Amino acid sequence: MRIFVTGASGWIGSAVTDELLAGGYEVLGLARSDASAASVSAKGASVLRGDLDDLDSLREGAATTDATIHLANKHDWAHPELSNKAEREAIETIGEVLAGSNRKLLLASGVAGAVPGRSLTENDASPFHGLESPRGGSENRAFEFVDRGVGAVSVRFAPTVHGVGDNGFTKIFVDADRAKGFAAYIGEGTNHWPAVHRSDAARVVRLGLEKAAPGTVLHAIGEEAIETKLIAEAIGRAFDLPVRSISADETVPQFGPIGTFFGMDIPASSARTQQLLGWVPSGPTLIEDIEGGAYSAS
């Protein structure tokens, strides 16, 4: 099978590309720059030049392959409305191409819509629907194509997909703490974050391609609920920093605009995903990665 992967040179996408190639698949990777194209090509994958704003490239990739894995995202924190628009348009474009073909469309989504008193599960519907929603409501929009013969599957990733080379949330928090001279958690630090190692996340995607039925929600969650105080303490140990609580009002000055996410309580389970796919997380934990030097490079 030949698989079209958007975001093929990205943090998760490059691991997914490796996982697919190792599994005997051919990969056509979307690349927006010469550097990205070189990275994808070096892995042994084919390259399609384009980006999320180039809808013709998305049409070509989806039309000429046996399945699509959509992992690219603009991550424009300053202009989230642009990211949301691009994400929704990408799903609509790919969905229209795949309509009636029964080919798979796996899309990246996020763990959101916390349920008070328990962990979010795969059975909990996404609360996001419209263009104004995070990711443009892409999960629900993709599932609208299931009745039109598209094998849409949503992969909800933990907010931190960690490992050596991670430049996501954990790296941002580490860098902010080092710049401020102390590792911070908000309030009592008893709110929870789920996490997954990058290698485990890539396996969920590959297994989802092989086993998940249209309309399925998968949770790429290795650890269900890590107290944020424990994350801050691990950063403190790794970088010899004092650890202290900050108030909600100090969150943005400490971490920047995305710091508010660190104050969220968003435990999430992957029990159903593990059972469905026969998947067992086996990578290092987030604390092990932090303390083991995964975030030590400046």
TrEMBL record:
A Pfam entry, by short name: Epimerase
Source organism, top-level taxon: Bacteria
Transmembrane segments: none
One annotated Gene Ontology cellular component of this protein: cytoplasm
Record GO terms (molecular function): aldehyde dehydrogenase (NAD+) activity
Residue span, NAD-dependent epimerase/dehydratase domain: 3-78
Protein name: Oxidoreductase
Source species: Subtercola lobariae
